[in-house]
Amino acid sequence: MQSKTKTKKNMAQRKVVVRKYNMSDAELSGHCRNIRMFVQRDILDFLNRGVSEASIEAFYQQRMDWDSFDEDVVKVGEITVATEDKDASEEKLRLALRTYRSMAHNKWGINHRNYRIYKFERLHHTTDDILHRLARTVKLVGPTHLADLATEGLTQDMLDNIEHLDVEFELNIDLQQNAQTDREIQTQQRIEMGNSLYKEMMRLSNIGKDLYASTNAVRYKEYVVYHEPSTKKTKEEKAKEPKKKSASSEKK
User: pTM for the whole thing?
Assistant: First the structure.
């Protein structure tokens, strides 16, 4: 099962992109929509700062492309379906192998070398790779024991079925891993797009704040994305401060 190792290797080599904005995607989209609306209104002032109607349109398209990018819930659904298919094929293979083990047990007993060669204890393991290896052993060794186990009901069709179920099982493992990898890649792509959108939004926001910092307080606030902490203390904060002793009390 080389696909599993290859997938893990590719995942390890992929650079992880970190989200650079401290807000939800919905909030980012809303802020971008508002900033665009304000810049369109104030475009004459922004023209002197290198912002044109074309760049505003590009900013709008950037947000639309990001908004239309598949959300994580879509990929999670694909992983769920792939996992269900893999689990179903695993159970079919496991049942077929249990039947084969029962035939071998009845024919030889657990201490016979023909029985021990299969290492049926692997049937109790839950890892996909171990179950696949057991099925491969039956595929390779089973035909040599077909005559002996015929008295227990073993047929070539049963062996062929185990091989078929194993192929289906391995295929579904690959599909599940591909779905998981696709989700990780898409998540990284969406984060990259969000970071780029956030960067452009903050550039426009900073220009707007700079333009109106000393000329228009209302418009300045419109371009503030994050609420900046106030240096003034609230009544509650003042109430919590220790009261200063009066001069008369100090003399006492």
Answer: 0.64
Quick check: 21 and 192 in contact, CB under 8 A? no
What's the confidence (pLDDT) of residue 243?
56
Sign of CA dihedral 218, 220, 225, 230: negative
**What SS3 state is found at 15?**
coil
**Taking Cα atoms as reference points, which of 129, 89, 182, 126 lies closest to residue 4?**
129
Flag whether 221 is in a domain: no
**What's the token pair of residue 93?**
């293979």
pLDDT of residue 16: 82
Give CA–CA dist 14/188, Å, rounded: 10
Q: Give the pLDDT confidence score for residue 74 in this predicted structure.
A: 76
Whether residue 149 is contained in a domain is answered as yes
CB atoms closer than 10 angstroms to residue 196: 13
- Is 240 within a domain? no
* Tokens describing residue 15: 């650079």
Query: Other CB atoms closer than 10 Å to residue 28's CB: what's the count?
Result: 20
- Name the one residue in this structure whose structure tokens are 């418009």: 219
User: For residue 104, is it within any domain?
Assistant: yes
Average pLDDT across the chain, whole number: 86
How many separate domains does the chain show?
1
DSSP state of 115: H
How far is 102 from 93, CA to CA, in rounded Å?
14
Instruction: Judge whether 139 and 100 are in contact, CB under 8 Å.
Output: no
Q: Which structural domain range is residue 125 located in?
A: 21-212
63-117 pLDDT, tens digit per residue, is 999 988 866 677 888 899 999 999 999 999 999 999 999 999 999 999 999 999 9
